[in-house]
Amino acid sequence: MRAALLTGWRQPLEVTGVADPDCPAGGVVLKVLACGICRSDWHSWTGADPDVALPHIPGHEYCGVVEAVGPGVTRWHLGDRVIAPFILACGHCPDCAAGNQTICANQVLPGFTQAGAFAEYVAVPFADTNLTPLPDSMAPDLAAALGCRVTTAWQALTGRAALRPGEWLAVFGGGGVGVSALLLGRALGARVVVVDVVPEKLDHAKSLGADAVVDARAGDAALAVREITGGGADVAIEALGIPDTTVGALKSLRKLGRMVQIGMPAGDHSTMEIPMDAVYSGQLAVFGTRGMAAWRYPSLLSLIDGGHVDLTPLIARRVALSDASAELAAFDAPAPPGVAVITDFAA
């Protein structure tokens, strides 16, 4: 099969022929229909993710068609169109039994701990636990764009922060996760302010219905959010994983506010100084979140399929497999608005 192979940190991916993946017991092999290109893939590309060993195929935001079914699989058949979370849980451990698949000790992560979906085919273990059928109305590029961005934002807003209608949501970072949080937050009835340093991203957020935007280059972004919201946001989302936005998100909250760390603190940012005095005096709740369990997909897919939220504005670029290197390199600087999705695996 054709795949984009990472052979050196920060080096262009090598688009080459590699062996098709074996079908695991209890798992399936998917023919990849589309795969998102995410900032988490950039972390792998830079060498910041300790789980990644070279050579490696990145890619964790995928959807596809079942091409092979391993022994023990009962729910899936050849030709099924499916999507999977980027954390593949075993389905049998105590955490999985409690519904907490994102902390499964036996988890597998395509694109990180095993070969990913920057390729024509990808192996998906634990298929009965993790796969979800795609609605017939959902295009593959949108399904792939849900990947870790939309699903992680959905989990952050509904599973961690319990965002309520009428609350103010502050989103720090206007990339894929941030735009997902904006669109989902509005669908849940919240008022949303988006903070970024890229004027094009702020304009994009405003065009998608943000109640307000803040250019963090212009001064104290947290103070600006508190002024816009009349005392502070009820919920803040950090969507970059860097100290400036993490501190800003915390300081933007009103008392008893909730902050969710979505951005992955990696490399030099794996340890941060945060204002614990603000946490203490404001009686703030701080949540970490990573991915979303497969059993939560139906509620999100129903919201989308029912026409209650339009996520198509997320997708800015539909690209070829050979374009993946340029898209990853773009994350070195403030990236342009929107998500890039690989839809052509032949070029």
Count of DSSP E strands?
Answer: 15
CATH fold descriptor of the largest domain = Quinone Oxidoreductase, Chain A, domain 1
Percent of sequence in beta strands = 15-25%
Q: Structural class of the helix and strand makeup?
A: alpha/beta
Give the uncertain stretches in residue-range form.
none
Q: What proportion of the residues is helical, as a percent range?
A: 25-40%
Please work out how many helical segments DSSP would assign.
11
Counting structural domains, the number is: 2
The CATH architecture of the largest domain can be given as: Alpha-Beta Complex
For the record, what is the CATH homologous superfamily label of the largest domain?
Medium-chain alcohol dehydrogenases, catalytic domain
Distance between the termini: 13 Å
Reading the helices and strands in chain order gives EEEHEEHEHEHEHEHEHEHEHEHEHE
CATH class of the largest domain: Alpha Beta
Net shape: globular
Quick one: biggest sheet?
Answer: 7 strands, mixed
pLDDT averaged over residues: 95
CA-atom Rg in angstroms: 19 Å
Keywords: Metal-binding, Oxidoreductase, Zinc
Family: Belongs to the zinc-containing alcohol dehydrogenase family.
InterPro entries: ADH-like_C, ADH-like_N, ADH_Zn_CS, ER, GroES-like_sf, NAD(P)-bd_dom_sf, Zn_alcohol_dh
Cofactor: Zn(2+)
